[in-house]
Amino acid sequence: MAPRVLISDSLSPAAVAIFQERGVAVDVKPGLDKDELARIIGDYDGLAIRSATKVTAKLLEGASRLKVVGRAGIGVDNVDIPAATAKGVIVMNTPFGNSITTAEHAIALMFAVARQIPAADASTQAGQWEKNRFMGVEITGKTLGVIGCGNIGAIVAERALGLRMRVIAFDPFLSPERALDLGVEKVELDDLLARADFITLHTPMTAQTKNILSAEALAKTRKGVRIINCARGGLVDEVALRAALDSGHVAGAGFDVFTVEPAKENPLFGHPNVVCTPHLGASTTEAQENVALQVAEQMSDYLIRGAITNAINFPSITAEEAPKLKPFIALAEKLGSFAGQLTETDIKEVRITYEGGVAGLKIKALTAAAIAGLLRPALQDVNVVSAPIVAKERGIVVEETTRAAEGDFESLITLEVVTEQMTRSISGTVFHDGKPRMVAIKGIKVDAEFAPSMIYVTNEDKPGFIGRFASLLGNAGVNIATFALGRDAQGGSAIALVEVDGEVPADVLGQIPALPGVKQAKALRF
Ligand SMILES: NC(=O)C1=CN([C@@H]2O[C@H](COP(=O)(O)OP(=O)(O)OC[C@H]3O[C@@H](n4cnc5c(N)ncnc54)[C@H](O)[C@@H]3O)[C@@H](O)[C@H]2O)C=CC1
Ligand SMILES: O=C(O)C(=O)COP(=O)(O)O
């Protein structure tokens, strides 16, 4: 069945065309309320949104088929990422498609505030020729303080330098080299507040940036400062800003985003030196076309080919990599599952070694799959997307090693799971038939595929075991499909991996350890 996508915000029609070309069925229903959306979300594999749709944990609860949320734009603060991750839903955005447009809007607001253009326009068109009422300020030679100098902040900085402004930037993640490259001076926040004639915000909304321009921060700004916010409402304390505008400390503000949107009322509204737009930062024909095309391509690539681009909660996988990775993802997950089904105590550490060809693939994705397989016997809800986070939360140390092929296999994955009691290890590969198989357990060579129902036995390598074991199963009516054996040395430790038809009855399993020389018997399911 073709994957089905819902577009729940106003996207350029370019998106629909791309989905359809790529074989994805698409419904366009912008403006649904949250209950209507919750009612239908269960029918979709993908959800394409802008900033209006709120993807909450509650909505995700009913999204049983959902595999991907695509944000046609940058900010994903309207998506509950941890909840999506826990459900295995990939969240992707289009990190560059609207950045020039948004930077231009910040510059536009800066001019609009500096020259009071909206108020002057309204007055002029009302027939009042108030030439003396509107006295602006020049931008040339002024200092612009950029808070958040990422993609958009950097474009704003470039444009501002072209306007002959001096640009200072506060961004803890801005490297001195990048600052030098951009021609901006990297400063601390307090320094920026004390020096800027204009302040423009370009950070995402996070716990650290929320209220970054608080009443306290605003009090540290220069008298006569003008503040532009084209990033997110809530980065600036709107009540405190209004008070600072009323007192005349802040000379003007240009706001595109508000703490509550749609903003039908707001503390800033009505002040003569405030210019507002209704979250139009990304609203140009060019930007909307860019983000719609890009999100539709990315979502289709994922749904049809398994390629992942610009995901917030998973490593990228190209369309070329995806088919190569697929059998190894299955292998990693099954190796993890093998170890997980045998592990009954707390896992301390997981070491994964990738040898040969597989070491050149996206090992982060393989590790995530191995951990998902490992943890699933204990935590049913864990998935490939959430596994690394779940492991981290549980204090499990994950170590990855890559190296050239050393043994008989072109590609080999070895998983070692360390618990309080022991270290368990299993290696596997994928042969040319694309099927994953186990090739070593505890360093003992075997050759077995992963079958739906298996029995794993460890025993002493003594004559007579195989006959007694096969008779026990045969007498109980359990049919053996395949039988794989391995041992470390003659008379040493041996293992048996037996594929059987159907479930292994618990009483039959219970009798295996009573056979002479048997140390352990476990039913496994793959
Ligand atoms: N008004 C609108 O329509 C639009 C608004 N936006 C908003 O603009 C934001 C920025 O977009 P981009 O520049 O593309 O993102 P980006 O990720 O390229 O840049 C964000 C920058 O903020 C910095 N940052 C993070 N935490 C910080 C902190 N505590 N203090 C100072 N800097 C910090 C980061 O280091 C990064 O350099 C988006 O997150 C989105 O919320 C984006 C597009 C349109
Ligand atoms: O891309 C972003 O972060 C934006 O804020 C743009 O929002 P929008 O898609 O115009 O609702």
UniProtKB/TrEMBL annotation:
Domain of life: Bacteria
UniProt KW keywords: Amino-acid biosynthesis, NAD, Oxidoreductase, Serine biosynthesis
Enzyme Commission numbers on file: 1.1.1.95
Domain ACT: 454-526
Reaction(s) this enzyme catalyzes, per UniProt: (2R)-3-phosphoglycerate + NAD(+) = 3-phosphooxypyruvate + NADH + H(+); (R)-2-hydroxyglutarate + NAD(+) = 2-oxoglutarate + NADH + H(+)
InterPro entries hit by this protein: ACT-like_dom_sf, ACT_dom, ASB_dom_sf, D-isomer_2_OHA_DH_cat_dom, D-isomer_DH_CS, D-isomer_DH_CS1, D-isomer_DH_NAD-bd, NAD(P)-bd_dom_sf
EC class (word): oxidoreductase
Keyword Oxidoreductase: yes
Pfam families: 2-Hacid_dh, 2-Hacid_dh_C, ACT, PGDH_inter
GO biological process, one term: L-serine biosynthetic process
Gene Ontology molecular functions: NAD binding; phosphoglycerate dehydrogenase activity
Pathway where this protein functions: Amino-acid biosynthesis; L-serine biosynthesis; L-serine from 3-phospho-D-glycerate: step 1/3
UniProt record similarity statement: Belongs to the D-isomer specific 2-hydroxyacid dehydrogenase family.
Reported function: Catalyzes the reversible oxidation of 3-phospho-D-glycerate to 3-phosphonooxypyruvate, the first step of the phosphorylated L-serine biosynthesis pathway. Also catalyzes the reversible oxidation of 2-hydroxyglutarate to 2-oxoglutarate.
Name of the featured protein: D-3-phosphoglycerate dehydrogenase
Species name: Alsobacter soli
